[in-house]
Amino acid sequence: IAGVTELWDHELERRNDEIYDDLRRAYWRDREAMRDAENEEWWQLYTEYLRSPVWRAKRNAVMMRAKSRCECCAVNPAVHVHHLSPYPEVLGHEPLWTLRAVCLRCHQLLHPHRDFNA
Q1: Whole-prediction pTM value?
Q2: Strand, coil or helix: 84
Q3: Each residue of 25-44: b (16+ CB within 10 Å) or e?
Q4: Which whole-number Å values give the CA distances from 15 to 8, 9, 18, 20, 83, in the listed order?
Q5: How many of the other CB atoms lie within 10 Å of CB of 103?
Q6: Tell me: the pLDDT tens digits for 62-86?
Q7: What DSSP designation does 102 have?
Q8: How many CB atoms lie within 10 A of CB 83?
Q9: Where are the beta strands (DSSP E) in the chain?
Q10: What angle do CA 12, 17, 18 make, to 5 degrees?
């Protein structure tokens, strides 16, 4: 191309990058808001399930299987039952082998972002 000293428009590239950066930020902001709403719905569903007779029976069976001992460390008494696959479509239908009796310390290691004391 005669007379062209530069084949790339750096200013256009910079403006384009700014536009796409703004779009990416908006996308992730919207996605985070959607995830928060889904999480709220999930925790509501999960909390209701943990109050159900079906869950109580499964929890008791797991605690009996483990003789109320943590299946993670095998040292401490188990106080919780941990789901290996806590998906909405599984709740109420989870096989007992996907549930583990765990002590508070081990459960916190499995879920470092959660506060089980709250």
Answers
A1: 0.65
A2: coil
A3: eeeeeeeeeeeeeeeeeeee
A4: 13, 10, 5, 9, 48
A5: 20
A6: 999 999 999 999 999 999 999 987 6
A7: E
A8: 16
A9: 80-83, 99-102
A10: 100
